[in-house]
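[agent] plan:
  1. take the single chain provided in the ticket
  2. run structure prediction with default settings
  3. attach structure tokens to the ticket
  4. add a short note for the reviewer (M.T.)
[agent] executing step 1
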Amino acid sequence: MTLNNTNTIVIVSGLPRSGTSMMMQMLCNGGLTALTDDVRTQDISNPKGYFEFEKVKSLAQDAEWLHLAQGKVVKVIAQLVPFLPKQFNYKIIMMHRDIKEILTSQQKMLGKDTAVIPFALSDIFTKQLHHTEQFIASQPNMEILSIHYKQVIESPLEQAQSIASFLEMKLDIEGLMKSVDRDLYRNK
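[agent] step 2 finished; step 3 output follows
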């Protein structure tokens, strides 16, 4: 399913390891079409896949491809949101997660000791996310919905309804909810 307004692009954003892949899966199962390329395949850290599009990584240098995302959903990390071109409208679902959980998940994914958390990154990531949210609030072509990872795990129906309302679409609520896997909430 694509959006009614094809000039609009749905963006799933957040810090790495904040639940963006889960949200992408939810939206796909709910009926949206994702712009992905399957370059990064599923692994032990994301057994259901990453739902990424490789060209997003170079968004700061090249956004010519973004027209391919019109009417669809694409994952863009928070730090790259300010580079989204102004000619499109964006509905941004910003994923939030406890910073300690994010850092623990990153350590685990990188094969590092999860008992040694690089808390210096905490301030950096928090500031980056805050800066991105301030940027979004100042843009007339961007709307934002903040979603907390833990709330999705604990109240999937409520969050699914909130997402459908924000996107102003008749999404498959059951499809959205079936993507929520409590067993994958491993880094608490």
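[agent] step 4 note for reviewer: The radius of gyration is 16 Å.
[agent] ticket updated
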